[in-house]
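Usage

Read records sequentially. Each one opens with the input sequence:
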Amino acid sequence: MDTHLHHEELHLQSSDLLRDVVIGMSDGLTVPFALAAGLSGAVDSTSIIVIAGIAEVAAGSIAMGLGGYLAGKTEQDHYNSEQKREYDEVANLRHREIEETKEFFANIGLSEDLQNRATEEIAQDTDKWVDFMMKYELGLEKPDPKRATKSALNIGISYVIGGVVPLSPYFFVDSPITGLKISVVVTLLCLFVFGWFKSKMTGVNPFMGAVRVMLIGAMAAGAAFGVAKLFEM
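and closes with the structure output:
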């Protein structure tokens, strides 16, 4: 029994980590790629692209990480607020909570006798009763208290890793257009691989998911390059 619960917790944590990596990596690959492509159509120096790209990656990782932190804190605050409300209802509206608990057991097919016995048993421990109602009445799982910080770090680091990919060719060439050509090949390949694994892990057709992710990145970069060339004229 303990082994099953431990496995479930690991599964939930892995799902959170996967979500964070997907959020950070997808934007990290796409946004700096579009920026570098746009600048390649407007400037003649790779150093400008590198400096601007690094600045964007730094700012983007902080912004994305902060967004993940705030989302995690909001989830925690919401859970705490609902938990406080449940404690108040158990203390002040006990009869109603008993009826709601019996109703849950009735909905899963227990006889009336078992409903009464199960409700009486669980109502003896207020903390366990509140946890039960949080999960089965409100559908809320208790969040990891460190979730906000973990999410911020996971998303921020993933964004940096993704952002380095489209910028890396510009470190080794002098021509922005040459750097862009290499960046396009490298980044689209990484987007395809990233989209493949993301789709496979989320149950979507891997090939179609990979192509979709790759096309989104390509369209973003193409639009940025085209706009830069348009204003250059």
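Summary fields computed downstream for this record:
- The radius of gyration is 25 Å.
- Residues 23 and 155 are 7 Å apart (CA to CA).
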